[in-house]
């Protein structure tokens, strides 16, 4: 009598889920420790203790501490790739609202990965040349939805700018600032208030005066 055809796939799914949980434990622990101590000062034993796993288990997923650091940074960029496009799609076809939705999604990813986002700025020079190039490529790729929305807005006469790339990176930097200066902003602003204030600040600079009434909810008007 043969076993159930669903058993192997169910077992594999359970193993994959368990691996994902353990990997997440390691990455979250690495982000916390490396932000506080610097990657050079974090031993694999300390990382294992913080993550609540064995050193051997870490080596099962990563070749060493450099790979862990790279994985922490890539994790943030992968979250952008996963979260931003669906948020833009949910906003509909209007380029301005798609841009606003993209910025909000970036900010929410940054909030979720605050330690890792700070680590990106502090420790990226500790990566190998190959690792740094990988990060640069992913950053360009994951910021493309912002540039696309700006270009579409300009083409539709809804935005005014000669440099879509500059607008996109200004928004990206503002999203990262929530992590970099969180110690300051959290005193007076919630995440939602921060998103609304920064979004309005940028959109007021690029939405033509005659179109602002259409976006009063985004401009804070």
TrEMBL record:
Record PROSITE patterns: HTH_TETR_1, HTH_TETR_2
InterPro entries, per database record: DNA-bd_HTH_TetR-type_CS, Homeodomain-like_sf, HTH-type_TetR-like_transc_reg, HTH_TetR, KstR2_TetR_C, Tet_transcr_reg_TetR-rel_C_sf
Membrane-spanning segments: none
Keyword Magnesium among UniProt keywords: no
Residues within the DNA-binding region(s): 43-62
Domain HTH tetR-type: 20-80
Keyword Zinc-finger: no
Key words of the record: DNA-binding, Transcription, Transcription regulation
Name listed for the protein in its UniProt record: TetR/AcrR family transcriptional regulator
Species assigned in the record: Gordonia caeni
